[in-house]
Amino acid sequence: MEQLEFRSFLESKGFSSESYDKLELYLSMIDEASKKFNLTGYKTKSDMRRGLIFDSISPLTDLCVPRGTSFVDIGTGSGVPGVVLCILFPFLNGVLVDSNNKKIDFISESASKLCLSNLTAVSARGEDFSLSKNNKEKFDFCVTKAFGPLYYSAEFSAPVLKENGFLYIYSHLSEEVLSHVLKIHFSNVGLFPGSSEERKTAGISGKGLFWVKKNKTPSCYPRKFPIIKREASKTPETIPSE
């Protein structure tokens, strides 16, 4: 994706030229850092612009969230979509979580250069972050991208979401094809598929899994990771094909 096309897209959504400039600067930072360590698998800036930035934010550019809304990006990797959301929506407060120290250091340095005072980068495993009492029911919404099994996403995100908060998972799957046992796990932690009206109210467009926390998450979640991993391995993600 080339710069002019990307700029036109942002303008069509009402974002400022300053936001575009910051996103291009961030893209250059990712490109430079990728030459030093394994930050992303994309090889060209054009591919990064499309695969990392555009594809990540296009479902979220119409977010309907009030000033002061907080979100968490669990398993953020290179900082997408968390950094991008903090650039486009400066009234959001974002916490970006990843267990890779190099990636968190990169995000922290990027946030400083981009003057993103609304972003905090945390080095932690997803289950450890969710276990912390300081993070219980703290966030209005959660995003996860390339995070691993959907089972993990449910168990790590639900405990840190406020009731009526939502979880958006980047996935090519639809809720209709998910296995019954996986849906039960989501409901056990308090998450239920959001309706089309709830998705519209939140400002979520396009594909991806959208879940709303309608029940309080039981205090037993998240469990210890070996248990989560074991149960996830026994849980099919989709309905078996005939």
Written description of the protein model:
With 242 residues, the protein is α/β, with parallel strands linked by helices. It is built from ten helices and seven strands. It has a single domain, classed as Vaccinia Virus protein VP39 (Rossmann fold, 3-Layer(aba) Sandwich), CATH 3.40.50.150. 41% of the residues lie in helices and 16% in strands. Helix 7 links the parallel strand 4 and strand 5 (161-169). Helix 2 (17-34) crosses helix 3 (45-57) and helix 7 packs antiparallel against helix 10. The N and C termini lie far apart (39 Å).
Give me the CATH architecture, please.
3-Layer(aba) Sandwich
Average of per-residue pLDDT values: 94
Instruction: Please state the overall shape, judged from the principal axes of the Cα atoms.
Output: globular
Percent of residues in β-strands: 15-25%
Query: Helix amount, in percent?
Result: 40-55%
Number of helices: 10
Structural class: alpha/beta
What would you report as the Rg, rounded to the nearest angstrom? 17 Å
Largest sheet: 7 strands, mixed
CATH superfamily: Vaccinia Virus protein VP39
| CATH class category label | Alpha Beta
Secondary structure tally: strands: 7
The strands making up the biggest β-sheet line up spatially as 3-2-1-4-5-7-6
Q: Kindly report the oligomeric state of this protein.
A: single chain
Termini distance?
39 Å
Would you tell me which CATH topology applies? Rossmann fold
Number of folding domains?
1
Query: Which runs of at least 5 residues are low in confidence (pLDDT < 50)?
Result: none
Helix and strand pattern: HHHEHEHEHEHEHEHEH
Keywords: Cytoplasm, Methyltransferase, rRNA processing, Transferase
GO cellular component, one term: cytosol
InterPro entries: rRNA_ssu_MeTfrase_G, SAM-dependent_MTases_sf
Organism: Candidatus Methanofastidiosum methylothiophilum
